[in-house]
Specification:
The protein has about 325 residues and is of the alpha/beta class. The chain has twelve helices and ten strands.
Length: about 325
């Protein structure tokens, strides 16, 4: 199916999605979560093919981790969909209202965008995350993931379409692009007749390419690194545990911590505490002159182990 054909079907699907009740949408989302669990074997088989292809093509270890699905990760994806069910329906909410001088009542009411296109990279969970949020807000979506996760994404797409159909909603409300050629990406960027907004999610190169070449409206997302700030009033033991989790729980994901800002007044007490935890996962530390003074020879000795360290975090001191 061409991108234009997908666009036509998505636009047709919006007619029913726009008028779908909150109960209908939540029922479909609950069905998606249930069917992800029921079709675990199918999804994991498709994902295993993606992982095998990724390893054969020399994909970096961190990217293989981002790509890989397990029972636990599938459960997390399904639970995430159920969390969306619990969110309030944004559609129909009145944000503002006023009376005009002639007595006419004017209201500002939230409505769906229409057809949302999303271009993203190698993480298959994004397929479900994005589709769930679009469905909750009454939008149809066309999802174009990276080639590394194509089999996983198509499996998720089939399962979500089955869930929509089961609940009486148009299955074309969620579509996954199978053609991952440059031509299909360009077609999405110029699908003005059918696509109401395009969202790139990924690295800076992907985002800039979409912003530069798209003729449809684009929502530009950020690519900056993730900061954690520890204030002088913080519970230092809790802060150390939060930082450890933010960096070491799954370093390959895009929201893993990269920069730590520490208030100067608690730096002497806090930095060794945080380092002790991060050392258990061989996190390499980088810091300014003051950080190196506080961590001293311990910090210097770690520098010599650079070749053995997998993950990175930057320490800076911060003071108002």
């Amino acid at each position: 199916m061409t991108i234009e054909e997908m666009g036509k079907k998505a636009k047709q699907a919006t007619r029913k999605l726009f008028s779908a009740s909150s109960a209908q949408k939540d029922q479909a989302l609950s069905s998606i979560a249930q069917m992800i669990r029921e079709h675990e074997t199918e999804i994991l088989k498709a994902n295993a093919e993606d992982v095998a292809n990724g390893k054969a093509s020399g994909l970096r270890k961190a990217l293989i981790d981002r790509l890989s699905l397990t029972h636990e990760r599938l459960e997390g994806i399904a639970a995430g969909v159920e969390n969306v069910v619990g969110l309030p329906d944004p559609i129909g909410k009145v944000d503002a209202g006023w009376n005009s001088p002639n007595g006419l009542r004017i209201s500002k009411v939230r409505v769906p965008l229409g057809v949302v296109g999303i271009i993203f990279e190698a993480r298959p969970n994004v397929t479900v995350d994005a589709a769930s949020l679009c469905l909750k807000s009454g939008n149809a979506c066309i999802l174009r993931g990276g080639k590394e996760a194509i089999h996983s994404n198509l499996a998720f797409g089939r399962i979500m379409q089955l869930a929509l159909k089961k609940c009486g909603l148009p299955e074309e409300g969620i579509q996954v692009v199978e053609d991952l050629s440059r031509a299909s990406a360009n077609a999405m960027m110029t699908l003005n007749d059918y696509l109401d907004v395009l969202i790139p999610r990924g690295g800076a190169g992907l985002i800039q390419s979409v912003v530069k070449n798209a003729t449809v409206p684009v929502i530009k997302t950020g690519t900056g690194n993730c900061h954690v700030y520890v204030d002088e009033s913080a519970d230092l033991d809790m802060a150390a545990q939060i930082i450890f989790n933010a960096k070491a729980q799954r370093p390959s994901v895009c929201n893993a911590a990269e920069t730590l800002l520490v208030h100067r007044k608690i730096a002497e007490q806090f930095l060794p505490k945080a380092k002790a935890l991060l050392d258990t996962k061989q996190v390499a530390l980088r810091g300014d002159e003051e950080v190196r003074r506080i961590l001293g020879e311990v910090y210097s000795s770690q520098q010599k182990r650079i070749g053995l360290l997998s993950f990175w975090i930057i320490f800076w001191l911060f003071a108002w």
